[in-house]
From TrEMBL:
Organism in which the protein naturally occurs: Anisakis simplex (Herring worm)
GO cellular component terms listed in the entry, alphabetical order: endosome
Name listed for the protein in its UniProt record: ALIX V-shaped domain-containing protein
Lineage, top ranks: Eukaryota, Metazoa, Ecdysozoa, Nematoda, Chromadorea
Gene3D superfamilies in the record: alix/aip1 in complex with the ypdl late domain (1.20.120.560)
Pfam family, one: ALIX_LYPXL_bnd
Domain of life: Eukaryota
Amino acid sequence: MYSEEKAKYKRDVLERIELKDKELNDYLLSLQLDEINLDKSVDELKLPEMLLERSAAFNAQPDAFPDLLDKLQRVGRCAIEADHKLDDLHNRLKAIESPDLRSDAGFKAIEKELERISDHHMKARTNNTQLQRAIAAHSENLRVLAMPLSELNRRISGPVVKPSETAEGAQLKRMLDKTEEMRKQRKHLIDTLSQDLDHDDI
């Protein structure tokens, strides 16, 4: 009778401990703590693959960004020159006062073509201005992207620091260490209880 009660008591205790262990393990799994390495420096963290590809492309063409800026400057100078030439042509056509010439089919064709070219030029200037603004807005990002990989990593990651050395990381590490300590204590308690019950032959 005593042996049966003792076995029942042991079984009941072990079942309750197993249930609590499962609850704790399920909770820890939901936190995905296995994906966190608190002792891994931030500079060792892997950058996204797409960022690495773009960085490699920029580093393969180190003159790409300066060349782009140079071409934009040349386009800007050409646009100014085109402005002057178109204004000059418009002024020359306006200076013609002869009704016969102004009513001539050739004159009208030239006037129409000049308007078409002027309209096309204005659209091109607008596009060029928008492109220059976009590049100016992202110029710093493009310069960072063109940095050597090690420098890019430092620039993005910031100062080298281990998560465990931050206040939050240290607190999380203490909690995990305490959890592990409690697991060991519980296992020791179970082992001791089992041994005591097994050796209890009253």
